[in-house]
Amino acid sequence: MKRNTLYKLGLIGLFFINSLLLSENSSANQNELNQEKPAPVFSIPNHEGQLFSLKKLNQNGAVVVFLSTQCPVSNAYTSRLIDLARYAKKNKLTFLGINSNATEDISDILSHAKRKQLNFVVLKDEGNLVADRYGAKVTPEVFFIDNDFNIRYHGPVDDNQRRDKVKQSYLKNAINAYLEGEEINPSEVEPKGCIIKRMR
Question: What band does 21 get if pLDDT is binned at 50, 70 and 90?
Fold first, then answer.
């Protein structure tokens, strides 16, 4: 109870900060985001009211993945996301989960993270502000951002919900190409998953 109360208080005080920071990139059309476009910055408080800012966290590059606690497609990727988060951190990249579903509250997110033993932070996107700015539509959907805040890859984690059927590991390939100074190809793939349930 105390933890949720603290979260709500922090959220009220920081909600407008979040909105202002998101507006810094208001010129970026959410339907035209690609590797040539700047990534919208954002700041979101966690369940304890601690502010997580992409601008401060993104020192070498960052992976932002939109997730769901209920979506079977998103949950099918749990072990892969854990492995990718470990790989990203090993290479000094930030790895963040974002939950923008209006039907999933902070207690759902916390219990889900604990149950799935996630090794990365998942933040609640109240009002789906971050999802709107990024144009995220489904879960899971990933954005790989370089340290100059350009979106270098946008799309699914890989090409198959079943891990044993994967032929193209899009996100990991994008990370490797970036680290090696090579062109990321493909840089954008249509993501598939559960529709993000936005606030109406």
Answer: very low
